[in-house]
UniProtKB/TrEMBL annotation:
Keywords: CBS domain. Residues 106-162 form the CBS domain. The keyword tRNA-binding does not apply. SUPFAM superfamilies: CBS-domain pair, Rhodanese/Cell cycle control phosphatase. Residues 2-36 form the Rhodanese domain. This is CBS domain-containing protein. InterPro entries: CBS_dom (IPR000644), CBS_dom_sf (IPR046342), Rhodanese-like_dom (IPR001763), Rhodanese-like_dom_sf (IPR036873).
Length: 171
């Protein structure tokens, strides 16, 4: 909002005013609340799962595997302390007991999408590439969650094969 508009709104009695200089797309990409006619449109951000196993870069494969085995997923995401996504550990990376740290065996920089992307577009992409899930981050690369193909079935009753977002191959 322009400074002039902010002054005018203040003069009209509004008190909660913000100058969000980054713009609307950045706001949406951070999965912040919206209003308007399309505010309820299904997006990746509206279907996020937050229960995906995560690991720190220096954690051992043995430690991470126990966490993955206790989850419904066959992988873990490697994050920094501020939740920046560094990589993914596929099930095959976790097969052997090992004191090897995650950062030595992870797949670096998996493909991600932003939370404001429409579910219809995500569904099409996942179906075309035989994907099971996709990773959702904000513009700074911090993990927001994942969208699983099962969550799209609720909307469109579409089936998917096993796969991953970045390569389209099985986990």
């Amino acid at each position: 909002m322009s400074p002039r508009a902010a002054c005018r709104l203040e003069a009209l009695g509004f008190t909660d005013l913000y100058d969000y200089a980054a713009g609307k797309v950045d706001w949406l990409a951070h999965n912040l609340p919206t209003e308007g006619a399309r505010a309820d449109a299904p997006t990746a951000g509206s279907r996020l799962r937050h229960d995906v196993p995560t690991a720190m870069p220096d954690e051992t494969i043995t430690t991470i595997r126990a966490r993955v085995d206790a989850s419904p997923y066959g992988f873990a995401l490697v994050l920094t302390a501020d939740r920046t996504l560094l990589g993914r550990l596929r099930h095959a990376d976790l097969a052997a007991d090992s004191d090897t740290p995650a950062h030595e065996v992870m797949e670096p920089g998996p493909l991600t999408l932003r939370p404001h992307e429409a579910l219809a577009d995500i569904e099409s992409d996942m179906r075309d590439h035989h994907l099971t899930y996709t990773i959702v981050t904000n513009p700074e690369g911090q993990l927001l969650g994942i969208v699983h193909s099962d969550d799209l079935r609720d909307t469109n009753a579409t089936s998917f094969d096993e796969g991953s977002r970045s390569t389209g191959s099985g986990l």
